[in-house]
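Researcher: I'm preparing a figure for a lab meeting and need a structural model of a single chain. I don't have an experimental structure, so a prediction will have to do for now. The sequence is pasted below. Please return the structure as tokens so I can convert it later.
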Amino acid sequence: MNARRRLGGMVLALALAAPAVSPLWAQVPITPARPDPRDPDAVIVEELVVTARDKGPAWWTVTNGAATVYVLGVPSIAPKHMQWDRGVFERRLKGATAVILPYQDVRVRLGTSLGAAWNYLRLKSSTPFEEALDPAAKARFVDARSRVGQPAKRYGTRNPLAAALLLITDYRDKTGLTNTDPMKLIKGLTQQAHVPIWQKSYDIAPQLGAILRTSPEAGSGCLDEVIAQVRAGPGGTLAAAKAWADGDVAAALGNERTYERCIALVPGAAAFDARAKADEVAEIEQALKAPGHAIAVVQLRPLLSQGGVLDRLRSQGFTVKTPGEE
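Model: Understood. Here is the structure written out token by token.
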């Protein structure tokens, strides 16, 4: 049972990178001067970044003239149980034909479970990760894991990227940050209202093996950034989350994305990201085939980036209205 839980924890850590990845990544500008080419959401479509007119988080509207999908952009990470004005959401939930949620529920298919277990064992080590580091690197890592209250044995891996993902997960747990809120609340409210939920689930097991194929240099670079984020603390994330709740989209986009950018280093991550965006677009298109209105919930960066969800929908001829046009 313990081994199964550890495997599930590793798979979950990888899967939750928002749907689930350079110098300090905390508090980056909306679009960096030199976007990282590995990051599919580095460049934002600036005309879509508008402060909301209504009280509470910002909404975008996608329509074909006969049906409408109201799109709520949400942060990729926020404080657990954060408060936000739900008035607009609850009003639009009434009579909605469906609520489309980002992928969050993940699974390991039976056919890949043995491979996932084998990859997990290959990542594991009986020797703490820090023991293989040079003295200076070890001191930085020990300081970071001490800040999140974890012992050396917690990081029993030989892989720097695996150590980085575990460390950033522990940091977020320690500081009360999560990538399941506000989606968890939205899902609960939708279930209470008996509105159909559309939420895809993917087999994440292949990505576990992909960690092993990530270059040591990339993994070590990611670990350096994670350590820097742990030292910086959650202040930037808390400010961005408050901005999101106030409808200030530009400030909300300043959220830290260390975990997400680390995942982008994994071989196959770009293809997975493209697939997830294509699936979200397809579900919105499907909802627009029915009269009335539906709701879609999409993380802010994938929603507003070049090649992101709204950019793709506009290119297909749908009308997209910003929060300032409602």
